Amino acid sequence: MQFLNFRQGLQQGLAVGDGKTFTGLLASDAGYPGSLQSLVKQGPDAFAKAAEALRKGAAIDLAKIDYLPPFDNPGRIFCIGLNYVDHSVESGFEIPTYPAIFSRFNDSMMGHGAPIIRPKVSTQLDYEGELVAVIGKPGRYISKEKALEHVAGYSIFNDASIRDYQRKSAQWTIGKNFDDTGAFGPFFVTSDELPPGATGLKIQTRLNGAVVQDASTSSLIFDVATLVHLLSEAVCLQPGDVIVTGTPSGVGVARKPQLFMKHGDVCEVEIEGLGILSNLVADEQ
């Protein structure tokens, strides 16, 4: 099932579809099943029931809505750094034996079609196309063998980073959390629609139509099951927690000459089976 979280006018809505056509309901409509954030806490059957209700709704004109992040208020956003071998090498790091983990804040995110904002204080706004896994079942000390049972589905993230601020500190948090730099969407696709662990999917980032990142999710150093297992050693994972799994090589800061996003650019991240996340870049006003 493929879900779209959106706003039409002042109302939030939810729709189900195939990536091109969607039917759905607004929050004020009879039968509205609730947000994805609420559904994921009810267990996997809730998605099927919601899809049934949404298919009875009206056709959604995608040109007349604002896309919202599929999960616009997740409990936790775990981001993984250096999770592709080539990206670790281009960044000047040794291949990790344990994942680099940092957090994003909810307020840094926006949906498909919204502008990624280049802040006044930096011109080093970089792109990072990434696969997202969303937790659907709570658990602590989850085994790798059982880990994918805890994943509800997948989406796309552009972990746009302010590189000079990222490197001002020993911790990456500030460079990864500028307002309006974390694009998330456009859709949420349930796990049953994809290969186990979303492995083997083509992931590509394009800047103004030119391919800048091109890889496969099978090249993750720490795959989705491993990430779920390792994170659950530290915390009890909860439904709606988001894991942003890391970016492949080709980032702008590692290029010669360096390539950073600027006002008027369009950045697209496409992952096979998950759609295309597209955002315009705009200077902060």
From TrEMBL:
In terms of InterPro entries, this protein maps to: FAH, Fumarylacetoacetase-like_C, Fumarylacetoacetase_C_sf
Fumarylacetoacetase-like C-terminal domain location is: 77-281
Q: Name one GO molecular function term.
A: hydrolase activity
Q: What's in the keyword line of the UniProt record?
A: Hydrolase, Metal-binding
Which prosthetic group or cofactor does it need?
Mg(2+)
The organism's superkingdom is given as Bacteria
Concerning Pfam families, the annotation shows:
FAA_hydrolase
* Hydrolase recorded as keyword: yes
Family per record: Belongs to the FAH family.
Q: What is this protein called?
A: Fumarylacetoacetate hydrolase family protein
Q: Which organism is it from?
A: Polaromonas aquatica
